[in-house]
Specification:
With about 110 residues, the chain is an all-beta fold. It has a single domain, classed as Immunoglobulin-like (Sandwich), CATH 2.60.40.1220. The protein contains no helices and 9 strands. A hairpin with a 5-residue loop joins strand 3 and strand 4. The two termini are about 20 Å apart.
């Protein structure tokens, strides 16, 4: 999946429904997790441009959301996005495959 935003945008929020990696039709129940993070990095870099707390907006249905910060979409380019879920007890699951976000010049 590919999404396009314009440089400097802060809306709309980016949302997703988290599915089981081994069964793409099965939704991950996020009702009892410790937290979820939104992670975004340039396609040609391993460092995160954004690595911030996200919101669970519908836990039983695996729906998450991230509200863009003022500088999150400041630099045009192609980015890869993933969600990192931390379960109670400390286990971590990172979504795959990654979504591509293009930030176009204003």
């Amino acid at each position: 999946m590919s999404l396009v935003f314009t440089q400097g945008d802060t809306a709309p929020d980016i949302t997703a429904i988290i599915h089981q990696e081994d069964n793409p039709t099965a939704i991950v129940d996020l009702s009892t997790i410790d937290g979820v993070r939104f992670q975004m990095r340039r396609q040609d870099d391993h460092r995160y441009t954004v690595n911030a707390a996200a919101a669970v907006i519908d836990g039983p249905n695996g729906r998450v959301s991230y509200s863009w910060g003022a500088n999150d979409l400041a630099v045009p380019g192609t980015y890869l996005v993933q969600w990192e879920i931390t379960y109670l007890g400390g286990r971590v699951q990172t979504t795959s495959p990654q979504v591509t976000v293009t930030v176009r010049r204003q």
